[in-house]
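Human:
Take a look at this sequence-structure pair and walk me through the tokens.
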Amino acid sequence: MSVYNYSVKTMDGKEISMEKFQGKVLLILNSATHCGFTIQYTGLQELYSKYKDEGFEILDFPCNQFSEQAPGSNEEIHEFCVKNYGITFEQFSKIDVNGANADPLFAYLRHATGKVPGAEITWNFAKFLIGKDGLPVKQFAPPTQPKDLEQEIISELKK
């Protein structure tokens, strides 16, 4: 199994295969626009701008599960992120990351990064680094700043 075995929904609700990102280093995260960690969008965009031409992608999945900190439609969330943080990386439809309605990709990521089955993501901005082979490399806790991921991203890009 790898992330390429999954499909996700675009902001407009169309299903796409994760195979679209085959051969790239990915940073997959759950986000929220009204969270204390929302400021991380600045650092995420800096990483993306710096490494996108080397095969790095950020895949952002808004999630309203944590204190309803991602209100609004997919379009409203995207407009907020572009206007306030200038993001240019991909955002997808709002999802759940925990519980019975958890997105299958995130259930896989939780399990594949060493979390015991059923363990939950604790908050917004949990981040998963994925190697070019589509296999999860590491999960980073929500408070982890994007700049603190840079060396690991570089390492994966060199492989």
Notes: The CA atoms of residues 111 and 117 lie 6 Å apart. The first helix runs from residue 40 to 51. Helices lie at 40-51, 74-85, 104-112, 150-158.
